[in-house]
Design goal:
The longest helix is centred in the last third of the chain and has 17 residues. The strands form 2 sheets. Strands 2-1-6-3-4-5 form a 6-stranded mixed beta sheet. The protein has a 6-stranded mixed beta sheet with strand order 8-7-12-9-10-11. Helix content is about 30%, strand content about 25%. The mean pLDDT is about 95. The protein has 9 helices and 12 strands. The protein is globular, with a radius of gyration of 19 Å. The chain is an alpha+beta fold.
């Protein structure tokens, strides 16, 4: 099994909303190294665990929140988590990434990821506090915006360091391009992942972790980080990216047809 010293925690949290059960499953080293990162692991799990021809909004669809081996470390650009599921927008595999604090917090709680299947009887949110897992009533949150949901859950749990992913009214109503939001402004915005959450009566997932991520070779790791930071700082595109973010790439991506305007024409 993979140990914490190698970046991976080696565990995934399995949630069944229909049965209100949560179990922790250990992950095999070969699986993690063959399908590297949350995106690779996610497509492997979805392909092997999801029955064929399942409707994306059926309770049998599986929703995965996954991280990578560098998530939760000081490595730049690695704070993202990935949502993997069968897309209600396309009817096939989708993966959507978002940055912010949720991914690292999931690692700090002791998990490389969470898989969610089934459907709750009523609106529910999950509370993951390290090894403590609770299914909480979210009836009072149904119809709330993602900002309102975030603020209410933090107040209820009494901890402003809690990190939350949640849906708004679009996800609740299964709009096929609905997003999953975290840290107020971060969006897993591709493929309608929010609609899958809504189809499961899952309003939010709140996480608090205190365990951290260990590094096997700290001196080597720090040197690699310094080299990376220097490379990023000296790159000619860094200054404009700080100002404009990924919108800086819109024009160039549009030139080779990478934006879905005019049906990718």
């Amino acid at each position: 099994l993979v140990t914490a010293k190698e970046g991976y925690i080696g565990k995934i949290l399995r949630i069944n909303l229909s049965k209100r059960k949560a179990i922790t499953q250990e992950l095999d080293r070969e699986l993690l190294y063959t399908y590297l990162g949350g995106r690779g692991l996610g497509i492997c799990l979805l392909y092997s665990e999801l029955p064929p021809r399942v409707d994306p909004l059926d309770s049998k669809n599986i929703l995965y929140f996954l991280t990578g081996p560098l998530t939760g470390t000081m490595t730049p650009f690695t704070s993202k988590y990935v949502v993997v599921t069968k897309s209600p927008l396309t009817g096939t595999y989708t993966r959507s990434l978002a940055g912010g604090h949720f991914g690292p917090e999931l690692k700090f709680a002791g998990y490389d990821g969470v898989s969610i299947e089934g459907k709750a009887e009523k609106p529910t949110y999950l509370w993951i506090d390290n090894e403590k897992i609770e299914f909480k009533d979210a009836s009072h949150l149904w119809g709330k915006t993602t900002r309102e949901t975030d603020e209410i859950i933090i107040k209820e749990l009494g901890d402003d360091s809690v990190r939350i992913v949640c849906i708004g009214q679009a996800g609740e109503n299964k709009v096929r391009f609905a997003c999953i939001m975290n840290d107020l402004f971060r969006a897993a915005g591709r493929g309608g992942t929010g609609a899958v959450m809504g189809s499961k009566n899952l309003k939010a997932v709140a996480v608090r972790g205190t365990m951290g991520v260990k590094i096997a070779y700290m001196k080597t790791f720090k040197k690699a980080l310094l080299d990376a930071y220097k490379s990023i700082t000296n790159h000619p595109g860094t200054a404009s990216r700080k100002i404009y973010g990924t919108t800086e790439s819109v024009a160039s991506i549009g030139l080779f047809g990478g934006i879905p305007t005019r049906n990718f024409q």
